[in-house]
Design brief:
By secondary structure, the protein is an alpha/beta fold. It contains 8 helices and 12 strands. The protein is globular and about 50 Å long.
Length: 277
């Protein structure tokens, strides 16, 4: 059966669509993987994607994507999928989430894929409680097509989960292995909040046995402060599944009390925090 620690992408031989139990979503999440070649424009040290490479996805077969999504959702809603594949207590369909093995917005067909997901969800008359979600590093908001896709998500009351793991250039370089200006990420985040309801998602963990230092904590709090009234909140989480990157031996989970203390400091800014260990 599915579990929160097993997020395999190869369900029933599908290319683009896969089911998982999401601890942050709180039940069954139907994932859409637009990066089946395991390529991403970032290379986060905690990433669970095997053989991760730099780059973007191949052309997307939109007809196949629609067929796979329709097939899996029909099995979940009208078939015996929940009894067959999901433990009791997790048998609720929570969302259709664009996530997968790389940055989903890097696909040229991203807005068309979003339109397909909306159409299939409406075709199957899924209730409003089943959200359309995008999990993104937010680095490509300068592209008009990306903004168009996110706007469509907002129009159907979906959500964006926008990755911000660290808020200094050095921290981003160490964790996400990308050279970025935090101010540019903040501008992209502000744009995203204007297009669709947006949560931050932050993975907080130790490197070489050391938690993020006070400089990183203060920088993060300073980063979120200007958008505290614009974002829906922060999904703060620790390491749940082992990294498959070369840096894996250097990474470690933080004690619950340390994660909770960081959550408290974020909450003090008036921001809702959903904490997952």
């Amino acid at each position: 059966m599915l579990s929160t620690t097993d997020h395999r992408r190869d369900y029933s031989g599908f290319r683009y669509v896969y089911p998982v139990i999401s601890r942050r979503a709180g039940g069954v999440s139907v994932g859409v993987n637009l990066n089946p070649n395991n390529a991403c424009n970032w290379a986060c040290v905690y990433c669970q994607v095997p053989n991760l490479t730099r780059g973007g996805p191949p052309p997307i077969d939109l007809a196949l994507l629609a067929e796979e999504l329709r097939t899996l959702l029909h099995d979940i809603v009208h078939g015996d999928f929940m009894v067959r594949e999901v433990p009791e207590g997790a048998r609720s369909l929570m969302d259709v989430a664009f996530s997968g093995n790389g940055e989903p917005t890097s696909a040229a067909e991203f807005p068309q894929a979003i339109a397909i997901a909306i159409a299939v969800m409406q075709e199957l008359s899924l209730p409003p409680t089943v959200k359309l979600r995008l999990i993104t590093n937010g680095s490509l908001l300068h592209r008009a097509a990306v903004r168009t896709g996110i706007q469509r998500i907002g129009e159907v009351n979906g959500e964006v989960w926008f990755k911000v793991d660290r808020a200094t250039a050095a921290g981003m370089a160490a964790v996400n292995q990308i050279a970025l200006d935090p101010e540019k990420i903040l501008r992209n985040l502000q744009t995203c909040t204007e297009l669709a309801p947006t949560w931050l998602q932050t993975c907080w963990f130790a490197v070489d046995g050391k938690a993020p230092d006070e400089k990183e904590v203060s920088a993060y709090l300073g980063f979120v402060d200007p958008v505290r009234t614009k974002i829906k909140g922060v999904h703060l989480y620790g390491l749940a599944r082992p990294s498959l990157q070369p840096e894996a031996p250097r990474l470690g989970s933080l004690p619950e009390d340390q994660l909770a203390a960081f959550a408290t400091r974020i909450s003090a800014l008036g921001i809702t925090v959903a904490l997952s260990l």
